[in-house]
Automatic annotation (TrEMBL), chains A, B:
Its cofactor is Zn(2+). This is N-carbamoyl-L-amino acid amidohydrolase. Binds 2 Zn(2+) ions per subunit. Zn(2+) 2 binds at D90, E125, H377. It comes from Peribacillus simplex. Gene3D superfamilies: 3.30.70.360, Zn peptidases (3.40.630.10). Belongs to the peptidase M20 family.
Amino acid sequence: KINKERLLSTINTSANYGALPNGGLCRLALSEDDRKIRDIFMEWMKECRLDIRIDDVGNMYGRRPGKNPDAHPVVLGSHLDTQPIGGRYDGILGVMGALEVVRTLNDYGIETERPIEIVNFTNEEGARFIPSMLGSGIVANAITQGEVLKIVDKDHLKFVDELKTIGYKGSSENRLKEMYCYFELHIEQGPILEANRQSIGAVTGIQGISTLEVVITGRTSHAGTTPMENRNDAMLSAAKMIQDVYKSYENFPGSLITIGQIQSLPNVTNSVAGQVVFSIDIRHPEDAIRMLITKELKERLSTTALINKMDLLIKDLMEVKAEKFSGKIVREIQLAANKLGYSSMKLISGAGHDAKFMNQMAPTGMIFIPSIGGVSHCEEEFSTDDDIEKGVQVLLELVLRFANR
Amino acid sequence: KINKERLLSTINTSANYGALPNGGLCRLALSEDDRKIRDIFMEWMKECRLDIRIDDVGNMYGRRPGKNPDAHPVVLGSHLDTQPIGGRYDGILGVMGALEVVRTLNDYGIETERPIEIVNFTNEEGARFIPSMLGSGIVANAITQGEVLKIVDKDHLKFVDELKTIGYKGSSENRLKEMYCYFELHIEQGPILEANRQSIGAVTGIQGISTLEVVITGRTSHAGTTPMENRNDAMLSAAKMIQDVYKSYENFPGSLITIGQIQSLPNVTNSVAGQVVFSIDIRHPEDAIRMLITKELKERLSTTALINKMDLLIKDLMEVKAEKFSGKIVREIQLAANKLGYSSMKLISGAGHDAKFMNQMAPTGMIFIPSIGGVSHCEEEFSTDDDIEKGVQVLLELVLRFANR
Ligand SMILES: NC(=O)NCCC(=O)O
Ligand SMILES: NC(=O)NCCC(=O)O
């Protein structure tokens, strides 16, 4: 049995780095707070006598040897970064849960056949640097080294420079290469487990994401002297387009569409906006439908731009295809839950996760626990201590099964 | 006669500080580029042997003594700051035009009865620090010292600190106190003079401005896991409200409504916007109508917020009442233009100007010259060399008349 007190205390300690007023966290990837929690996590891994590696994009690995040191490891992990207004559980549970599994094995002096590796992936959130799931994407070769060099944040700071600044630029030889399987424990971030009163979710797959950037260019001019008829106001067109975009989801039940980011230029009160830029996040469990939505949206926006005499540029910022996890692993997760006496159900993940890319390297499983109120990416994000305990207990159970095969 | 070459060369020199790629300027108040042009302007005033003063909010004055040194001066001026995407003429013409008047008087060794003062007012644009017309507003006691202490820019940098940083914090004793009259030469920034093929505008008044800040608060949540029905999306409501706002001008012909500034929180692609903040700039020549528009707008926004279950806060960022200039001065401007053989017409100013507050201290006149294409607050802002020359010639003519009374 895991040590619940110790587990909750690690999560509480983590919540001190980047703390927001109402219990949430702002711990953007490669920020000073990210550095601090990494340093602490490093200490904790050392205390567990793990072999520590840092790879070239800052992913942190801690390896516990097995009886058979050359066998491919069972890997457990997630991420320690958060959204700008994020919760204290999100990826943190998966990393601290993995640490608790190792600590428990150490407590009982259990030696497994296979080595076990725990991982903290860099920039899963995609809040500071796009794309999201960056660390895992690179390890799975879904993102090239050339692409990484071009990644910058809103202030044009380079990902690679910021990584050096916080002291977590390691070597590409340290990347995760071969593994037996990957498990990620995560909060559901949605309402399904709670609505169905189930403790454990066995995740069958992850829906795909398209992220677009819409750049609308009109002409800036004086707010006090330009007659309404003579304006080329990018803000007015943006408002129309945002409503267009939100309407389009009505034609595609089950789709999710979000406009989260917006900027205007010159962004002053007394000049007409010459340019407005906004993002669109489009999701659907089926890639074909997501692509259809994206195509229709682009056409709709082009028409609105034409009618309103705006220049329009739509950039594809990110595309992540849907992922299906092995049915065998899904069954094993439910069996493990069952053995421990926990209720469980299958469900699909609305959010992207590092597990998506790990699944391209080895059989992968995801365990969800309920999010109270179904909310995440906000300070109100919450999971109960009991559910947290159950999630990590299932993770331990799976490790005991898979690391001894 | 003024020296046209010299005048154009000072305007060209000014255009080197804060230069944008297409001929425009970004020279925000109290920026490093503002400091540089202030230093140069200071040198030029010294070369003219003017008595220089800097007041407590950074307004710069240069005084040319008159035969009667105790007589109230004739004051000429405008501002050297610009919008983030601004033109090279805007307030610059009024300051450099005033300098050229003094240089011409020096060339010819003309001594006037009254002293002449030229002024560069701080932060007229209101682009970096709200309110606009800050320097002149303070001199006219329309803005209190307590209010000034609270003024910050978008990055929360304090106006008073930034003023010290660029080295232009002087003493309140140096403020402009008593004057005989004030003249400001400015580009029209609108289409009226060009449409009427007139060289000189005699400005009869300035329309009022209300600037509001609308804060819409919903709830941020995860873009991939929050069903559309469960969202409290501030961006969607903002888009509706922006269209509401723009529609309202249709009920009030002659009004101008502008939404220039927008921010979203947390401003990431993969979280629903929990908060959106945008500005509204409302103008009408008649204060009663402007107030009616403002009232109706607030009601409309409240209704939309209620329907969409959003928290709504509307802040009054700035209110500047309409101003009427003396009919006598308007006539004198047209007489001066006429004497010089230039066509002229009366018109009202859509933009706010330092002259608005100067008019509360002494009889004030504004001279407009045509803006090609009627545009301003953009890089395309342009006035012809001939019109610039005519404008400054009229300014000189008025100085010769008023400074010898
Ligand atoms: N789990 C999670 O919130 N990941 C961020 C990537 C996304 O789904 O947008
Ligand atoms: N002249 C000018 O552009 N002033 C800025 C103040 C305003 O009218 O918004």
